[in-house]
């Protein structure tokens, strides 16, 4: 049974999670210990174990959940309103702006590269994030079809998958090369593909 926290308790727990997330983004999960997290979040050892009884493993799962939420939050409100081609372009600009600003310290990299997917619970978080992200994109592609802005024969699910792959692949290459052009080009090509005439 999940414990219900007071407002103060929830704020303390959130402070610990956010402090840990910021450290992991910069230092990497292998280089961050509980003492580092306590220092970054201004919490005592007893507080940390009060909210995360299983220690680092428990806390890392909470960080993974937090980072998954940040991946979506960083794209809002544009991701939630992809109803016109103009709004799709605004979302594209938002995605590029976010990943350009974050570079090596992005939520997606922290979740997939730093926290990893070896733990089934973390893998479930990544899968849930992917499904949610894909669903937003599919709603947007469907809206363009219904308004006549793209060909009615466009496959909604496949198009959403291609766009999602362009963002995640471009972001991964940005992490490894520090070149934003991969993300810019992949996302531009994926979106332009929506408007190409179908045979």
TrEMBL record:
- Please give the InterPro entries that the UniProt record associates with this protein: Homeodomain-like_sf, HTH_TetR, Tet_transcr_reg_TetR-rel_C_sf, TetR_C
Please report the stretch or stretches of sequence annotated as the Tetracyclin repressor-like C-terminal domain: 101-187
What name does UniProt use for this protein? Answer: TetR family transcriptional regulator
This protein's record includes keyword Transcription regulation: yes
Tell whether Transcription is among the UniProt keywords: yes
Q: Which UniProt keywords apply?
A: DNA-binding, Transcription, Transcription regulation
Q: Which residues form a coiled coil?
A: none
Source organism, top-level taxon: Bacteria
Ranges of residues in domain HTH tetR-type: 16-63
